[in-house]
Design brief:
Elements (H helix, E strand, L loop, with lengths): L5 H29 L3 H28 L9 H16 L3 H32 L3 H35 L2
Helix pairs in contact: 1-2, 1-3, 1-4, 2-5, 3-4, 4-5
Amino acid sequence: MANENLQQLYVDQLRDLYNAEQQILKALPKMAEKAKHPGLKEGFRFHEEQTRQHAQRLERIFDMLGQRPTGEKCKGMEGVLDEGAETMKKYDNPDVADAAMIAAAQRVEHYEIAGYGAVRTFAKELGLNDQEQLLQQTLNEEGNMDHKLSQLAEQVVNIDALRAD
């Protein structure tokens, strides 16, 4: 690429994240529908709304940059979500399926945390303080969701799945 620089990498990575968020928005309603545990259903629905906000923040950043959010396909998220969809079909026991969905959802969260952490750092290095703050806000929310999923797994869902034996 002729104009390779940190700014271009930043924009490309933002596009990748934007596409990832769009894919997640399609997956979350299916996960909420499949979940047995009310707390897990609620968590997936809450995160769907949060994910809409994440996408809107990215759109705001693209506006600040004078760029469009489209153009990249997040193949990594596609793979993580495909694997999660396969997992949802694999287990008939709803308690075990809930535990499997939490594991899949945490893979999604960790992928996002890595991506948002990188672009937040790029924004900081590029002196884009407003964008850095927006990205940090999303990064915090992704980390909080991962923590909530861990708590739900440890306190309820994994215990129910263990009893399914």
